[in-house]
Amino acid sequence: MNSTPAEQKITAWLKAFTAALEAHDIAAVQALFAEDCYWRDLVAFTWNIKTMQGREAVGDMLAATLEQTTPANWAIEGEASESNGVTEAWLTFETAAARGKGHVRLNDQGCWTLLTSAQELKGHEEKRGPTREVGVTHGAFKERETWKERRDRELAELGYKTQPYVVVIGGGQGGIALGARLRRLGVPAIIIEKNPRAGDSWRNRYSSLCLHDPVWYDHLPYIPFPDHWPVFSPKDKIGDWLESYVKVMELDYWTKTTCTSASYDAAKGEWRVEVDRDGERVTLAPKELVLATGMSGVPNIPEIPGIDGFKGDIWHSSKHPGGEGYAGKKAVVIGSNNSGHDICADLWEHGADVTMVQRSTTHVSKSETLMDLALGALYSEQAVANGITTDKADLIFASIPYAVLPAIQKPLCDEMKKRDADLYGRLEKAGFQLDFGADETGLFMKYLRRGSGYYIDVGASELVADGSIKLAHGQVESIDADGAVLQDGTKLDADLIVFATGYGSMNGWAAQLIGQDVADKVGKCWGLGSDTPKDPGPWEGELRNMWKPTQQDALWFHGGNLHQSRHYSQFLALQLKARQEGIPTPVYGLQEVHHTA
Ligand SMILES: Cc1cc2nc3c(=O)[nH]c(=O)nc-3n(C[C@H](O)[C@H](O)[C@H](O)COP(=O)(O)OP(=O)(O)OC[C@H]3O[C@@H](n4cnc5c(N)ncnc54)[C@H](O)[C@@H]3O)c2cc1C
User: Fold this and answer.
1) Predicted local distance difference test score (pLDDT) of residue 13
2) Which backbone phi and psi does 429 adopt, to 5 degrees?
3) Distance 173 CA to ligand 1 centre (A)
4) Cα distance between residue 472 and residue 178, in whole Å
5) Residues linked to residue 363 through DSSP beta bridges, in sequence order
6) 143 pLDDT exceeds 90?
7) Equal CATH topology for 5-121 and 307-499
8) What is the DSSP string of 526-594?
9) Distance of CA 119 from the midpoint of ligand 1 (Å)
10) Torsion sign (Cα): 428, 431, 437, 442
11) Which residue has a Cα nearest atom 35 of ligand 1?
12) Distance between CA atoms of 296 and 302, rounded to whole angstroms?
């Protein structure tokens, strides 16, 4: 069969690339990259999650890693394609320790973007298909241990007679996805969850909540949602799914268990994790500790004079139980982002008189527009019909370096502005202060940079636009017995005040559980160093501290939306498995700490 020009171009590049790698000729490798180039590595070369930007960075990384990585067997997977002057293809390759998947984009100068990702560790592959367990030993045996007996024994012994290799604190969607990956890799792990049931972190939220992201984006690893599952999962349904998942994936998941403290014994290379398991004090001694306590971090509650004297109900959005019981009552919701909007709508639906206090501008994206423009190509019914599996979509997403994303997001944001001009106009007329991101790149960049500052509109914006949700502006200066007083002296009477004031950085959890010194040592989590509001520079190129080694030995952070939990749990699990197996994992480019919170 004749190969296409795209295939020929990729084949020629790959041949030169592999020859240069094999010869350890780093200058020759660099010459195959465009001047403006990016090599994003997920654990394959760097034992880190790292983007090398520019030829010099590519050279530095190879000089440090090539010797022990010994990449080989590069091949094109599937068909190469070409559009708008960019030729791209999927790749497979191997390193000394792993089998990997890659993706390359070439422009007229050479390689523009390269993704390399470890997919499995050689000799430690997950059992699947032909290597699955038989599940039964045929024959007749005295004192045969049934599956149920074995499982009960494992559950009784782990954490008492035997120690887990990993403890994951937090059994939300993040802890659960990681737990499943570790289980499949044979890494003994206990997931600690303070709630009574898996899925409670969703169930405990206000009653009307549904996921903001569509189903195609939300699958957990290994078990996708069935194809009748609603596009937007109601929160109790997702709670039940998570609980079932924990059961069928046979996770060692301790409910009603709170981690009270943890400390690291560097000499022993071991954590001491104190937990309260439904009243019983247990000390665990894992080698690795993962904080999956929620990427949103610790709730922010501003210190406002008079707060203790308020006669009504007052709480952070994370504690809002729902609008039941507030019919005819006055509610003030401080904050105008996702939670603020959802809670205002919930209270309005329950007949409350609601005022939203907007302190600064907020970006609004209509959910359906977002689904169509931002996610549709990769995560939609159409994408499924086009043969884009979830794994493929995740890797395509991962193949776009964060530095390149704003240029891709900007036109989408411009289109969104046009498409929803009517809503934006009406919101502004109602006094709502809108923004589209520091560089007009919209919601996704705000999510990555600061994890806040936006609302995915699933209905509340209409209520704001038509005045059903009232608006007030400015800082809350004080709270008195019956309401909140704003900076300009406006008094807002209230029976309920909700602080939808967001969350701190995830290292706040480390401060609470391990100590402020460790929190400061690892520094701020999340954000790219874009030098935009709440994401101070310098540029980091990857999300700070997420799913990769931190400045504290054996401490990891895991979290994010369902897509990120699914995708990045794979790379975090591989890093933990490699350590469990004693595979050398020299980390290239451990991130420096520039900010403590
Ligand atoms: C209105 C709204 C809509 C959203 N829509 C979506 C969406 O569509 N898709 C999406 O992916 N995300 C959505 N999110 C964000 C969602 O909240 C997070 O993605 C998700 O909760 C993150 O999961 P997680 O496991 O990292 O953290 P969490 O769900 O917060 O889980 C952390 C767990 O840690 C436990 N924990 C904390 N401290 C301890 C301790 N000391 N000991 C034991 N356990 C502890 C907590 O009980 C909790 O269960 C939405 C959020 C809101 C508010």
Assistant:
1) 98
2) -65, -35
3) 7
4) 42
5) 454
6) no
7) no
8) S----SBTTB-SS--SS-TTBTS--SSTTEEE---SHHHHHHHHHHHHHHHHHHHTT---PPSSPPPP-
9) 26
10) negative
11) 170
12) 16
**Range with lowest mean pLDDT among 203-207, 547-551, 571-575:** 203-207
Question: Is it the case that residue 501 has pLDDT exceeding 60?
Answer: yes
**Closest to 36 in 3D by CA, of 54, 17, 62:** 54
Q: Is 213 in the pocket of ligand 1 (CB under 6 A)?
A: yes
- Residue 150, judged by CB atoms within 10 A of its CB (0-12, 13-18, 19+), counts as exposed
Domain boundaries, the chain: 5-121, 152-298+505-580, 307-499
With CA atoms as reference, report the closest residue to 221 among 248, 200, 259.
Answer: 248
| Structure tokens given for 369 | 């527009």
Q: 25 alpha carbon to ligand 1 midpoint, in Å?
A: 46
**Ligand 1 pocket member 562 (CB < 6 A):** yes
3-state secondary structure of 219: coil
0.85 cut: is pTM over it?
Answer: yes
Question: From edge to edge, which strands make up the β-sheet containing 470-473?
Answer: 313-316, 496-499, 330-334, 353-358, 470-473
Indicate the pairing of strand 257-265 with strand 270-277: antiparallel
State in Å: Cα 171 to ligand 1 middle. Answer: 9
CATH 3.10.450.50 for domain 5-121, yes or no, is yes
Q: From the alpha carbon of 175, which atom of ligand 1 is closest?
A: 25
Q: Which fold would CATH assign to domain 152-298+505-580?
A: FAD/NAD(P)-binding domain (3.50.50)
CB 179 within 8 A of CB 190: no
CATH topology for 307-499 is FAD/NAD(P)-binding domain (3.50.50)
Structure tokens at 391: 């794994």
